[in-house]
């Protein structure tokens, strides 16, 4: 499935990020955040495609939040709070201007990669 493969490829790139560089280099930091945004976007779209393939009612259309909740309700994802937090951070990060908030986002991305990436 192409959407799933694209998501896995993006996640693999993000997992390989040198997060030490993200703390010291503004361009690298923005690259990590951009890759997170792309990876997250592909994640919910891949989830939607998988649920459609499995005939899950309601998966045909919906916002990212609705698709994540539906995925959780149908056992396709775990830790709905983490996924909804990532959605919230994805929505907020275009408005982050201070270094402390950016550093917190980088930590969340790093920790999420370590927790969910499976080689």
UniProtKB/TrEMBL annotation:
Keyword Cell membrane: no
Annotated source species: Butyrivibrio hungatei
Transmembrane segments: none
NCBIfam families given in the database record: HI0074
Residue ranges the record marks as coiled coil: none
Source superkingdom: Bacteria
Protein name stated in the entry: Nucleotidyltransferase substrate binding protein, HI0074 family
GO molecular-function terms, A-Z: transferase activity
Pfam families named among the record's database cross-references: NTase_sub_bind
């Amino acid at each position: 499935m192409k959407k799933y493969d694209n998501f896995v490829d993006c996640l693999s790139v993000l997992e390989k990020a040198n997060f030490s560089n993200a703390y010291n280099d503004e361009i690298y930091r923005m690259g990590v955040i951009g890759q997170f945004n792309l990876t997250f976007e592909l994640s919910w779209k891949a989830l939607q495609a998988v649920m459609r393939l499995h005939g899950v009612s309601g998966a045909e259309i919906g916002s990212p939040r609705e698709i994540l909740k539906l995925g959780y309700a149908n056992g396709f994802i775990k830790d709905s709070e983490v996924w909804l937090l990532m959605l919230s951070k994805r929505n907020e990060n275009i408005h982050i201007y201070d270094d402390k908030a950016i550093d917190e986002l980088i930590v969340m991305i790093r920790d999420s990669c370590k927790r969910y990436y499976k080689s």
